[in-house]
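Data deposition worksheet. Section B asks for the primary sequence of the deposited chain exactly as it was used as input, without tags or linkers unless they were present during the calculation. Section C holds the resulting structure in token form. Section D is free text for depositor observations; keep each observation to a single sentence. Incomplete worksheets are returned to the depositor.
Section A, Depositor: J.P.
Section B:
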Amino acid sequence: MGKRIWIINQYASHLETRHLELGKVFAEKGYSVTVITSSYHHGKREYLFSEPVKQVQRQENFNYVYLHSSPEYKSNGVKRVLNMLDFCRRFLQEQSRIAAWFGQPDFVIASSAHPFVWELGFSCARKYKAKFIAEFRDIWPLSLVEVQGVSPNHPLVKLFSIIEKRAYRRSDAIVSTMPFAWKHVCRVSGVSKGKVHWMPNGLNTGEIDLWDNQQTSLPEDLDDFLDNHWCCVYEGSIAKCEHIDYLLETFRYVNSSDIALAIVGDGGEKAALMRRAEELGLQNVRFFPEVSKQQVRALLLRAGCCVAAIHVLPIYEYGLSMNKLSDYLYSGKPTIFACGVDNVVAQAGHFSLPYADTELMAKTIVKVRSLPHEKLDELALRGRATIKKQYDYNVIGENYLRMLAEL
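Section C:
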């Protein structure tokens, strides 16, 4: 049996792609992998399992353990924080049983959405004399302050700041999905740059390539809309931080009658954005419900181009970690991204535009509509090659294992 890796991520319960895909790579390379998560599905806001503890085997040497954290919550309020704390309590109660099932860990990867998990990870690593890796996909508590607008003086922000610094200093290695996160880590904790490693979110390109050989149907209304228009496609969460209102404003300046915008996804801002599109009289903009991962691939292959926008905040100087951009580029379709900081779309030679110029984005969409086949083929090759080289989960997983081997 190879070395054992425990991954603690409360929000991996809905098979959050990162640790499912990394776990597959780790297991295929001879490691025993256990992901410990909550049975409360953060996206659906419901329980997947009623048992206090539930084991699910994903493949040989790769298991998930679901802990029944409570209470249920529907929004980002006090109940969600209580659920975080209860997940920690459950883990501390059950870690000995997990070790009996799967063996004591050699490496503990504690992956935040919330920083309490770093306290768990350090405690667990110390108990079993394992290496502790502090991983983060958002910068906490900076994301709360800059993206969510929470006061820097909020008690939770103060607490998370203390936990964050402790985690960086206590860890054997720090992993972030953002390429320049080392700037933040070094500034707040004083650790060396060499302790921080970039391991981005990625794609299982092999699985996606298999999907391309299958017939995947889309919902009838979406299928008809794609058939009848040259479509810009936005796919993903309908949330404030995705700035879909910017795309609506852009379409005020798209005067070509055969160019449409399909917004595919769900989220709390959807109703307000649909009203806004109606107020603006945008006849060629339609909203559609969320589709499956495999259907996302079929959707993007039918797009004329893919679009996204994000307002520039100081936090983005540390880099972006947007899964949809990898999906867009690997589809081979031209990608237009209003942003203003370094990003994978620019690296792939596609259309990275400054944020705050919706007229320029509209002109770019019209320009892309008329590109010759030779240019479209060139963009497709560059986009796919960029993702294959740096954002394929086999590449990321092997880089991760090399880092672990050096600890």
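Section D:
The two ends are 20 Å apart (CA to CA).
The longest helix spans residues 78-102.
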